[in-house]
Amino acid sequence: MHPLQRIREKESLLVIGLMSGTSADGMDAALAEITGAGLNTRVKPLGFVSLSYPAEIREEILRLASGDAGGSRDLCLFHFLLGELSLEACRAVCRQTGVSPEQIDLVGSHGQTLYHAPAAESYLGRPVRGTLQLGEASVICEGLGCPVVSDFRVRDLAARGQGAPLVPYAEYLLYRQADRSVGLQNIGGIGNLTVLPAGGAPEDTFAFDTGPGNMVIDQLISRMTGGEQRYDADGRIAASGRISEALLSWMLDDEYLRQPPPKTTGRERYGKAYVDALTARGDALGLTAADLAATATRFTAACVLAAYRDFCPVKPDELIIGGGGSRNPTLLRFLRDLLPIPVRLNEELGFDSEAKEAIAFAILASECVHGCCNNVPSVTGASHPVVMGKISL
């Protein structure tokens, strides 16, 4: 029997979702039992692990993701290295849950985004759009002996979409409510907002990137600690500083924040060059490192407010926070100070905030092998629904 036919005929599937985000902290792996397909999909999370990258691997990711570094040798070897790290994460979540790797039916791997250009850039005399996620799926396929779905974003981009955000499809399946409009704010390296209108269909969903999530904060913390810390643990450094209204005003005068959806962003906008300019302006204002961290953390919260205020045709009744930023009490306090609606954590609904994106790619993989369209054109701007993902057998 063909492997895909076998999968389609099973009542439920054991699926691993893999995610390596813009913060480049590590590889996340979530194991879920998935039953059904389309709007009948039901998901039971079984386990989650996050394997931190060694410093040299994270540094290489950031170097290659800068947009002006790396050659064919680097990209080739990194592609296969990340495939090996993805396989290690799959095996780790199997150990955690007591599930044999041979029992896994399917893997959905997002890979690591190295460059994302949803707006056309001039290249060799032509306007070209593109997106690049690396992490060789065949390495995972060979190691586990099951189909792997990868390279999700390119099909939506080919259909004239932004190729992002992709998680809203899974969010619709998991979080929709008949009588309440739900807002879902993920705060990874980049922040993204999804709104599910009460009783809405998938095409009523809208979502977009709100701006930087942890990305700018993390870079500042790494610089001020000489690389000893990758992030502001418990928001302590930001809590010890003061917010500079002058610097915050400069940060909020941001073309991206004024741009209407559909829109996505990433390290190409809020990476090293942005933090260089931010640090220089902070130095000119006489700010301490803690002041910079406090102001950058407030900026992330202010970006969420701007998204809610300016670009939500349906205002959510509550905002549910996920991603690594949900572990930052200072950021959560700023969000609750600024937003006029209740701000809750995924854990209050029985979900794991950090596993959310990995679970989403498990769902997207399951939908792909069942032949179900798994993008949301109202979110990405694609001209029509498509089946995203390339299947390795």
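Above is the first protein from milestone M3; the second protein from the same milestone is given next.
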Amino acid sequence: MISLGALALVAIVSSDQVALRAAPRDSAPQHALLWQGDSVEVRGARLDYVQVWDYRRERGGFVRASQLRTQALVPENADALLTIVRFLRDAPGAEAQGIAYVAAYLKAAPGNTIGAEAFDALGVMAERLAQRASARRGRNPDPVLAAHLEIAANYGVEFTSFERNGRMQLCYEGNAFRRVLALGATPEMEARAALALTRHDCIPPTMPAVERQRLDDWRGEVLDRIDVGALPQLLQQRIRLRRAGVWASLAHQAARRGDPAAIPGQRALDALAGVTRDDLSESDAFDYADAAVRTGASRWAAEPVVPSAPSGLTIETVAGEPGQTCVRLVDGRRRDAAGAAAVLAERCTWGVVWTASASTNAQSTALALAVQPLDAWRELWLFHKDGDAWRIDVLPPAFDDPDVGYLEFAGWVPAGTHVLAVREAKVDGRFKRSYELINLATLETEKRADSPEAIRLFNRWQSPVWKRMTVSLR
């Protein structure tokens, strides 16, 4: 994975844009630019310069001695190298240099003495480097960051990249963290490794469903191995947040396959309920909102399906094309010649239809239904009467690329003209939540507020079933 070949004495470049010159003087021609973390072989010294050979560029030359740190790759030096790794592990911007020292340590230390600590540090630095690169995407190119990524790759550190919502996402492949889990590390190291290996944003959106199922099963197993009781409070909460998001995804996938989804759905709710917000840092606010929205999108998985009444508006589902579910709105009070309930409207979807969510207004002129096309994206379908005909309108959580969000029914206004709803979604990288009063005729949001108490009709007519189940009131 990481190697410095057969070198016994190396020099690690300690800063960026270091000149490799043809002779030991500042006026000599420059052969190349070296960057922090570059490793070169020491071949001699002259004046205040070190003569080196750069195997990566296959060039030799001279570098100022003050810009290099010479290291002997022998067992006696292993502890000193590991001390430097510990120092650089939490130094933002020094990831390439830290990775170089991990490589030096792994070369110097006897195999039977290498534990999980070096791999934990390597994973932390590689992941932070990938996050820095992802944050820069879309801006002006950063030559320093590009050089650091190239140096990390030269040591065998692998990254994956893919497009998400019009921008490139770069993620560390995670080999070092898998070694941490295999080597019997401390509980804190194992928790960090599990969090890094189960990130939601490092799953390509184009991953085939079968591969995604296997990955999520594995993510659930990794997180279940973590003993939260042995962790500090902050790491406990972070593990619970990740479990909530992963089990919510597993609930959606189980429902898509037609398998029972109640157990993973309830596990997601239990994990979220176990989070104590006072034990989270300010930097965890985004992850808390993300876990809550993912759990909210699949929350109907934990609810039993109650048989519908034989009369009035009800929902029926039938198979459509392979993988499709067709939703029919039927009226049990009207029958055809064969005695079957009259079909008022029909629409097909590739998503999961949560039939337990169906709710009809008092006038039997509208019905609300939760439909989840993606594991973290749930829409609100409104069946409503328009004159003598019936319309089916799909209201998404946000008018942007599907990512993370839900729009859920929260109650009917008795006049039969409005519906109460809650919208929570990630928009432009931030989570936004609103309680809304929607006009059934126009589907326009007439009132919007940050809390239900701010809308009089919402405060008065919200559904008790919604209030009991929703995660938006967290």
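Note on the second protein: Residues 308-469 form one domain.
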